[in-house]
Amino acid sequence: MTALWTHTEAAAATGGDATMPWTANGVSIDSRSLQRGDLFIAIRGDNSDGHAHVADALSKGAAAAMVNKSWANQSQASPVLAVEDTDRGMRDLARAARDRAPARIIGVTGSVGKTGTKEMLALALGEQGETAATQGNLNNHWGLPLSLARMTRTTEFGIYELGMNHAGEIAPLSEILRPDVALITTVESVHLEFFDSEEGIADAKAEIFTGLRDGGGAVLNRDNRHFDRLRRSAEAAGITRLCSFGEHPDATLRLTKAEPGPNGSNVTAEFGDRTLNYVVGAPGRHWVMNSLAALGAVHMIGADMDRAAAALAGIRPMKGRGEQRAVTLKGGSFVLIDESYNASPASMRAAFDVLGATGPSGDGRRIAVLGDMLEIGESSPDAHAALAPDVLRNRVDIVIAAGDNMAHLVAALSDHAVTVHGPDSAAIHDRVLDTVRAGDVVMIKGSLGSRMIPIADALRALDREDGHSAAGEA
To answer: How far apart are alpha carbons 288 and 311 in whole angstroms?
Structure first.
């Protein structure tokens, strides 16, 4: 196997000095998850300094460590790449990876849907050539360069997320990535706490156009109310190739029919004089819209749309982002819909729609276990209360909610549904486990900071498929 990085290549890319020869097959910034043969980059974070973990990384089999020159003299006997600054060194490595590979790159951003769309693109393009993609949620000022530095020299397609919660964060990421296609899934009131308006969020997302390669294209949501603003930003950046998607009659890739089912949707879309009929293997209308975004990007990158559309039948929701599983209890099972990773008004409504479309069995109930949506700003109380019609429309029987902001939703539902409220996720943890019974459909959702993941994990741990319950019940 060809090495991902040699000491010579990495030194040339970063302007660093290697103490001895080495070859690396991967790149890591976390000694806990490091794999043997990785290049360990000692990043200085807000709360920790990777230099303190260099010895641990090397003892676990790291091929070498990239360290600051001011620290390097402490480890002359080790395989070290000494650079002026490891943050900059990782960015330089990412740029070099971009330069050496023939990959056609898609940059994906948006208020919601970017991870699902990225996964769809990785699946669809992975059948057409060697494909690299962001792993997990590595989409920030460390995650994007790390992801790109891991791209092999033979990669044909690359799909990378660009995340932000403040203005000015996407532009430098785009300049590193230099995508051939820039995809904005949608613009919603996510991270509004850090912006004066949704228009400001749209402008921050449009920073993705900054690094677009000459002749590159943009993919935009025609149904989003900020479409014209984003289109003007693209044009101002010199972009002449644009593909839009949605139900709007002027959309380049136009949705004409979506037949939902418990495990996905049958989709029909028009693209010029072509009709695309395909299956999306994940339930919910938001996945249908993600599929249109993905196919628009496939077209703009010059790959095969028909093959890509056919591949989408294999998409499945990820853990924390809509994964569904049956959890076996004594006397039956319940369905767990795990949306615990993050939340916004738009993604909350999409999750309620999936819950509403998933029928309980026997005398089961639809149960929503909810944590606060964070970073919404002054509008947060109203945004939470405004979810009430969606809860009722989807016939949710019980709402168990945690957090100061979710108190406003509980108040709005008090005369219409069974509700339970606690100050935080720990306060409702046991109540959730005591409430759930066979036949139920249970959806867990909240922003990452609302700590709903432990509740989802606890429900998952109730599974008796191995003949034992997590509580040790005989």
So the answer is: 14
Sheet holding 80-83, edge to edge: 17-18, 80-83, 64-68, 38-41, 26-28
Secondary structure tally for the chain: helices H, strands E:
17, 22
What residues form DSSP beta bridges with 275? 270
- Distance (Å, whole) CA 115 – CA 406: 25
The pTM score is 0.89
Beta partners for 18? Answer: 81
What is the spatial distance between Cα 164 and Cα 162, in angstroms, rounded to a whole number?
A: 7
> Which residues have C-beta within 8 Å of that of residue 414, sequence separation ≥ 6?
none
Whether residue 396 contacts residue 355, with contact meaning beta carbons closer than 8 Å, is answered with yes
Locate the DSSP E strands across 140-252: 157-161, 181-184, 217-221, 241-246
Question: Which candidate, 431, 430, 433, places its Cα nearest to that of 463?
Answer: 433
pLDDT tens for each residue of the chain, 474 residues long? 689 999 999 999 999 999 999 999 999 999 999 999 999 999 988 888 999 999 999 999 999 999 999 887 655 578 999 999 999 999 999 999 999 999 999 999 999 999 999 999 999 999 999 999 999 888 899 999 999 999 999 999 999 999 998 999 999 999 999 999 999 999 988 777 788 899 999 999 999 999 999 999 999 999 999 999 999 999 999 999 999 999 999 999 999 999 998 889 999 999 999 999 999 999 999 999 999 999 999 999 999 999 999 999 999 999 999 999 999 998 899 999 999 999 999 999 999 999 999 999 999 999 999 999 998 888 899 999 999 999 999 999 999 999 999 999 999 998 888 999 999 999 999 999 999 999 999 999 999 999 999 999 999 999 975 444 433 332
Biggest alpha carbon–alpha carbon distance for the chain: 71
Q: How many CA atoms lie within 13 A of 270 on its CB side?
A: 10
How many other β-carbons are positioned within 10 Å of the β-carbon of residue 36? 10
Cβ proximity of 365 and 131 under 8 Å: no
Q: Are 148 and 194 in contact (CB under 8 A)?
A: no
Residue 428, phi-psi category: left (phi > 0), alpha (psi -120 to 50), beta (remainder): alpha
